[in-house]
Amino acid sequence: MDANGYSDPYVKCLKPDMGKKGKCKTQIKKRTLNPEFNEEFSYDIKHSELAKKTLDISVWDYDIGKSNDYIGCQLGITAKGERLKHWYECLKNKDKKIERWHTLLNEN
């Protein structure tokens, strides 16, 4: 949360093995502590290779004039708890959308 009591969150995705071409991000949701991101992205990869890769999805607070703050929720093979469970469910259910709500935590 910024000094004004709000946050300006966005989601950043770093696709494996793609370098700078593999970056994508959502629109910034201005002045909210309860963002909803109803945006979609796709990545072409063989399902058999997916378990060996890490798709890094993270939530950030946009700040003008200084570095953006990480505010939580990474999904991928390095995740823990419910986030890792979500990732495994995605791996298990090929060609199916798996949607989950995740609580955002400042883990710094």
From TrEMBL:
Cellular component per GO, a single term: postsynaptic membrane
Pfam families: C2
PROSITE patterns reported in the protein's UniProt record: C2 (PS50004)
InterPro entries found in the cross-reference section: C2_dom (IPR000008), C2_domain_sf (IPR035892), Rabphilin/DOC2/Noc2 (IPR043566)
GO biological process assignments: exocytosis; regulation of calcium ion-dependent exocytosis; spontaneous neurotransmitter secretion
SMART domains: C2
Keywords: Metal-binding
C2 domain sequence ranges: 1-102
GO molecular function: metal ion binding
Protein name: C2 domain-containing protein
